[in-house]
Structure formats: structure tokens, C-alpha cells
Amino acid sequence: MSVNLSFTHDNETRPVSRDLLVKRAAWLLRRxxxxxxxxxxxxxxxRDMASYNSRYRQRQGPTNVLSFxxxxxxxxxxxxxxxxxxGDILISVDxxxxxxxxxxxxxxxxxxxxxxxxxxxxxxxxxxxxxxxxWVMWDKEQExxxxxxxxxxxxxxxxxxxxxxxxxxxxxxxxAEPDPVLAGGICELAGAQGIVVHLREDRRHIxxxxxxxxxxxxxxxxxxxxxxVKEIILIALDLKPDMITLVPEKRRELTTEGxxxxxANENKVRKTIDKMSRAAIPVSLFIDPDMExxxxxxxxxxxxxxxHTGRYCDAGTEQERDxxxxxxxxxxxxxxxxxxxxxxxxxxxxxxxxxxxxxxAIEELSIGHAVIxxxxxxxxxxxxxxxxxxxxxxFPAH
Length: 398
Ligand code: PXP
Description:
The protein has helices at about 20-30, 45-55, 95-100, 105-120, 130-155, 165-175, 180-190, 210-215, 230-240, 265-280, 290-300, 310-315, 320-335, 355, 370-380, 380-390; strands at about 1-5, 40-45, 65-70, 85-90, 160, 195-200, 220-225, 245, 285, 305-310, 340-345, 360-365. It folds into two domains: about 1-150, Metalloproteases ("zincins"), catalytic domain (Collagenase (Catalytic Domain)), CATH 3.40.390.30; about 160-380, Aldolase class I (TIM Barrel, Alpha-Beta Barrel), CATH 3.20.20.70. Strands 5-6-7-8-9-10-11-12 form an eight-stranded parallel beta barrel, surrounded by eight helices. It is built from 16 helices and twelve strands. Strand 1 (about 1-5), helix 1 (about 20-30) and strand 2 form a beta-alpha-beta unit. Helix content is about 50%, strand content about 15%. Helix 3 (about 95-100) packs across helix 4. The relative contact order is 0.09. The two termini are about 25 Å apart. It is α/β, with parallel strands linked by helices. The protein binds pyridoxine-5'-phosphate (PXP). Pyridoxine-5'-phosphate (PXP) binds near residues 247, 256, 346, 367 and 368.
């Protein structure tokens, strides 16, 4: 199956997300039993659409959508079309934007409705043949749109908040405030689906007492980040967090630098996973988006990998960022294909998160510094809600 989506409109003035629309079109093809088929979708401005409308339908002015089913070209059958192509759908983004405004919906949803309409035409539905057929097509459009909405919300990534830096502020004065335990509760009330803490060997922020109390208070999921060292392994086995994430740990680093080298530490990692498995604690390995590390993670029996997004977040140029993004996207698919569950995190903030969250294979994002920093300015509840709106956008708002 391929969805070939191109733009000829000015995407600066009317920005649309190719990733999102391709994903929705691919879902529609699967849902319509056309998983082995190809479709081309061209998004254009009103001027181009008016010209197609006049040339092929002899009508003046633009329309919202036109579909051209694949078929033998007129004249001698010199070019055999592949049996996989079902046709082309042309959509005017300008008209879709006006209709979205009138219908009180969003541009992406209106374009999605037009893609559904166009696809159904390509598959033989026709609202112009009779009133009865018009109703059949309308019902099908509504059904597909509703299902697509449900599908999207059930596969959206979850947001887990890393609250280490609440403890960092507390440790700055060595007192009791602010309390990461209370912060964890506020994050959950704001909608976070998990709480993450890193109990470092040097106890620079999170303390044993924090993890112990959080184990009792966290209602969603407590993910304990830790190094594969004896002392912390014993604490994890005693407290039984909902999962652990193994990270490399260096005394002098400001934050976790680079992913775990599973290949170089295979024995240690495998033994830790075995111990956790016996206590029914799933293990995630924090690794760079690297195919060899993914293979090693699968071979040592990890349940999850958490893909390190640091290089994507720190990229100095757009090209570098795109390259790092592609690497994460490919790694996420590969890991999922290998039977691993996939999380991601590190360095994610309010500008760079939405793109990663939109990757289908990613189940959960672990975000700390950006949210806690913003919380200082706007409050923790609001900071979490703003991040949630990026990770799990309410369907119509995308
Ligand atoms: N994931 C892992 C494994 C981490 O070590 C950290 C940092 O503690 C994070 C995610 C969160 O990174 P950030 O604080 O940059 O959002």
C-alpha cells in the first residue's frame, strides 16, 4: 500500500501536516480493504482546482474535491496501469479551509472528510446517481470518520512526567520543599499517565524516601529509572515499581548522556532483566535509535526500549533534525516489528514533542525538564496540561 501525498498549495500560509494526513489515508485504505492498493492525493490551491474543474467537469470556479479513478487511458492501451492504483484525489486546501471555518471544524478534519469522500468515489460510490445512493455514501462517510476518531485516540502516545527536578530544587536547600510526592499527584490529576523518577547512586535529586512513598501514592504507573547496580536493583525488587528503565549512569554527568550500550553490557543487563522478570517487573532499556542496540535489546529479553531523543532535540539545523527524526521513526518501527514495546524521551520540549508523539509505534513519552521548568512560570498543573495537549491533541484540534 502506498499513499502518495503531494502539495502544490502554499504550505506556509495554510500549513498542513503531511504525516498526519498520510497516516489517516493509510488507515482508511486498510479499513476499506484496500491495503494492497495505492492512491495519490494532491493538495492544491483554489486556482489550480478551478482549472481542473473547468477542464474535466466544465464547471466554473473551484470545488473542494475531485477524484479520478485509475483506468485505461483513452486511446490504444499502450500503458498498462498497475492493478494496485485506485486513482487520484485532488483537494483544494483553500476551499477546505473555508468549509472548516463554516462547519466549525479544523482544516485537517475537513481535509480528512474530503479524503474519505474522494476515496469512496474511487471505490464506486456515487451520490449523483440517485438519492438512495447519496444516502448510502453519506452514511459510509460518517461511519468512517467516527471510526477514524476512535482509532486515533486509542493509539495516541501517553505522557509520563519525570519529576526528578522537583527534587533537584528541594535538594538545593536540603529541606522538605518542594515535595516530589505532591508533584507526582498534581501531574496525575492534570492527566499524566505515568510518573518517572531516577534514583541515582549519588542521590543528587530523588531520595529513597521519595520512591518509597510514590510507590504507595502513584495511581497511574511508576517507572523507576536506574542503573543496573546491585544497591538499586535490591531497592527495585523490594519496592516493585510498575516498570524500571535501565539507563547508563556517570557520576559527573549533568543528565543521562547517551543511551545504554546493551551490546557491551549484555551480561549485566540480561542478569538484571532476569531478576526483574522473576519479580514480574517489566524492563525498559534506554537506548540510542540504533538498529544493533534494538536487536541486542530484543535478544536480552527487554519488554520495552526507550528511544533516546536527545540528538533530535539538540539538532542545530533543520536538516540534521529531520535526519534524527527519520532515525527515530525507523527505529521505533523496527523495535515494534521485533516485538518490543517502544517509549521515547530526553530533551523533549513544547516545540519538538508533537512530531515524535505522532509516531504510531511510540506508546509513551517520558518528559521532565521542560515541564518542570515551565511549571515554575505557569504552575505544574497547567504545564502538564499544555504538554498533554501536544502529546494527545484532542482529535479535532490537529
Ligand atoms: N528518559 C530518560 C531515560 C532520562 O534519563 C531522562 C532524564 O532524566 C528523561 C527521559 C527525561 O528527559 P528530560 O528531563 O530532558 O525531559
